[in-house]
């Protein structure tokens, strides 16, 4: 499970059970969820149960795990239960057993066996396209569209002129504002904390963030959420460079094609065209990082917006121990990103130079960017010469960035719930152990018998189950 | 009996025992900062802090945390006037 798809997973678990059931009617959706949303252990459990004729007794499942792996097992099962993939049943003799949700099992089998007539994996165009486009063109197109969006967000903030954002559609602009990636402040557009995080993510995660925002608003546009999700998952299973027919798409999905074209996720030669091409942004939606290595050269160029002319030369930033920064780039987008946390002073045709100062870093921290984000951006874009050092960045610089941030942020906060007033030590130990296993425990105080958790839903359902016993 | 407490409290049954949990924001900071937070709280009718948990932890009302942080910033600025202006000139 990659970092980017975990956002999608977070969104998915919040959907109601009806939506899950409808989603699971599409084999492509089921396969995509199975392939890239589920943790490895959950996958193994699903695979093991998939072809079992009867329900699987939970006592038997327990025997598969070492006692020490109880935490992992609980986490995997919890994800499966949240997604309504697995159903816990209790028979008359109070024996519990697990079963896959029927629709999910059926669709997954169809996807694996290639059986059924569902056509959910897209229908390739029957006639060859006279204006067929190649993969390089699609990459170029996707990159241009996506960079325009990013540049629109960053460029307006740092005041790179009014020409910014002309190529970005009105719909996309509204979406970015609705998602609070950018906000109107004092009559001009500024990037927000969310937007900052967004820009520094890798491209795949960015695409998901934007699409999830899109999903939140589809119902207002009269589109069906399930349709939109199925379509996204289908896109993930398509082949790059192949044109697909629009004939099998629902009205919602046709409407969606237009928006996705604006994002650069799909390409259409014209609005009335009867075919569409998925771009690399689309086909990597639901694949693990392993699937990307085949085209790593193109992809890394895509991940690092702006270095189109030299895809092999990914790093471009040099930082000296005196906080001076040199960036070999002429991309406005990269310059804009850098200027969010650097005091840039000089610009040459292929180089900008500046300095990391306390003022520039604290300004960035105030806008919501964290020192960790700055450091990870600088590290991942370090010049090949810098990459000969370990670590890539001078340690003094990294420490100083953290210290500057710490000066502004003196407290660490976590929202959540304080649990207390346990009747007995055993009660306390039991729930504490469960919370720890789930990974929701933030703070504990054994003497006062209380602890703090950042999520309560699982604990509540655990207590309910316990109370029923 | 459950103590009467400020803030949102959801008691729920767990076996025979009544267990309380309270929504809030856990604030982790060093002792000096904590002292300032407590100071701010006491000057404002205790409207921020629900409870002091230990040396380095406080439970604060979720809705008030942003305001509390802002007040802390101002207080730090006032108390720690440092003449050090950044050196952009080396």
From TrEMBL, chain A:
Keywords, sorted A to Z: DNA damage, DNA repair, Nucleus, Transcription, Transcription regulation
Record GO biological process: nucleotide-excision repair; transcription by RNA polymerase II
First-listed, main subcellular location of the protein, grouped into a coarse class: nucleus
GO molecular function, one term: ATPase activator activity
Record domain Transcription factor Tfb2 C-terminal: where: 399-464
GO annotations of cellular component type: transcription factor TFIIH core complex; transcription factor TFIIH holo complex
Listed Pfam families: Tfb2, Tfb2_C
Location within or outside the cell: Nucleus
Source superkingdom: Eukaryota
InterPro entries from the UniProt entry: Tfb2_C, TFIIH_p52/Tfb2
Family note: Belongs to the TFB2 family.
PANTHER family: GENERAL TRANSCRIPTION FACTOR IIH SUBUNIT 4, TFIIH, POLYPEPTIDE 4
NCBIfam families documented for this protein: tfb2
Protein function: Component of the general transcription and DNA repair factor IIH (TFIIH) core complex which is involved in general and transcription-coupled nucleotide excision repair (NER) of damaged DNA.
Descriptive protein name: RNA polymerase II transcription factor B subunit 2
Lineage summary: Eukaryota, Fungi, Dikarya, Ascomycota, Pezizomycotina
From TrEMBL, chain B:
Pfam family, any one: Tfb5
Location of this chain's protein in the cell: Nucleus
A GO biological-process term: nucleotide-excision repair, preincision complex assembly
InterPro entries attached to this UniProt entry: TFB5-like_sf, TFIIH_TTDA/Tfb5
Family per similarity comment: Belongs to the TFB5 family.
Assembly information from the UniProt record: Component of the 7-subunit TFIIH core complex.
Stated role: In NER, TFIIH acts by opening DNA around the lesion to allow the excision of the damaged oligonucleotide and its replacement by a new DNA fragment. In transcription, TFIIH has an essential role in transcription initiation. When the pre-initiation complex (PIC) has been established, TFIIH is required for promoter opening and promoter escape.
The name this protein goes by in its record: General transcription and DNA repair factor IIH subunit TFB5
Organism: Trematosphaeria pertusa
């Amino acid at each position: 499970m990659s970092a980017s798809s975990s956002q999608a997973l977070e969104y998915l678990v919040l959907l109601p059970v009806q939506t899950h059931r409808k989603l699971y009617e599409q084999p492509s959706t089921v396969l995509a969820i199975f392939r890239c949303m589920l943790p490895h252990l959950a996958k193994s459990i699903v695979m093991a149960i998939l072809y079992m004729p009867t329900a699987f007794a939970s006592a038997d499942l327990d025997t598969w795990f070492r006692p020490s792996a109880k935490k992992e097992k609980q986490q995997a099962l919890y994800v499966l239960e949240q997604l309504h993939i697995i159903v816990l049943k209790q028979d008359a003799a109070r024996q519990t057993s697990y079963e896959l949700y029927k629709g999910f099992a059926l669709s997954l089998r169809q996807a694996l066996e290639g059986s059924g007539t569902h056509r959910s994996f897209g229908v390739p165009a029957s006639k060859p396209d006279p204006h067929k486009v190649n993969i390089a063109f699609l990459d170029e197109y996707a990159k241009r569209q996506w960079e325009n969006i990013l540049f629109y967000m960053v460029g307006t903030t740092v005041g790179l002129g009014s020409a910014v954002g002309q190529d970005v559609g009105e719909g996309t602009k509204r979406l970015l504002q609705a998602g609070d990636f950018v906000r109107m402040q004092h009559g001009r557009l500024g990037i927000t904390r969310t937007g900052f995080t967004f820009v520094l993510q890798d491209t795949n995660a960015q695409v998901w963030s934007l699409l999830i925002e899109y999903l939140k608003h589809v119902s207002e546009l009269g589109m069906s959420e399930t349709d939109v999700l199925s379509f996204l998952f289908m896109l993930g299973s398509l082949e790059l460079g192949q044109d697909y027919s629009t004939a099998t798409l629902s009205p919602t999905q046709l409407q969606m094609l237009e928006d996705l074209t604006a994002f650069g996720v799909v390409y259409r030669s014209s609005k009335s065209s009867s075919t569409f091409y998925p771009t690399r942004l689309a086909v990597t939606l639901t694949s693990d990082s392993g699937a990307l290595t085949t085209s790593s050269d193109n992809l890394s160029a895509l991940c690092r917006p702006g270095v189109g002319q030299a895809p092999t030369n990914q790093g471009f930033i040099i930082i000296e121990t005196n906080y001076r920064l040199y960036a070999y780039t002429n991309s406005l987008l990269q310059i804009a990103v850098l200027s969010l946390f650097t005091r840039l002073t000089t610009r040459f045709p292929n180089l900008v130079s500046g300095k990391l100062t306390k003022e520039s870093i604290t300004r960035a921290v105030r806008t919501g960017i964290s020192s960790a984000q700055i450091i990870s951006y600088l590290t991942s874009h370090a010049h090949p010469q810098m990459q000969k050092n370990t670590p890539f960045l001078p340690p003094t610089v990294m420490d100083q960035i953290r210290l500057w941030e710490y000066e502004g942020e003196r407290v660490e906060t976590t929202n959540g719930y304080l649990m207390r007033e346990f009747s007995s030590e055993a009660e306390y130990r039991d729930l504490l152990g469960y919370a720890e296993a789930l990974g929701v425990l933030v703070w504990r105080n054994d003497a006062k018998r209380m602890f703090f958790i950042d999520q309560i839903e699982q604990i509540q359902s655990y207590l309910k189950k316990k109370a029923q016993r | 009996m459950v103590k009467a407490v400020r803030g949102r409290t959801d008691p729920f049954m767990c076996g025979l025992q009544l267990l309380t949990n309270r929504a809030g924001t856990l604030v982790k900071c060093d002792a000096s900062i904590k002292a300032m937070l407590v100071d701010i709280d006491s000057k404002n009718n205790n409207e921020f802090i629900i409870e002091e948990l230990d040396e380095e932890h406080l439970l604060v009302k979720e809705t008030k945390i942003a305001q509390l942080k802002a007040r802390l910033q101002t207080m730090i600025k006032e108390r720690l006037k440092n003449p050090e202006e950044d050196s952009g000139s080396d």
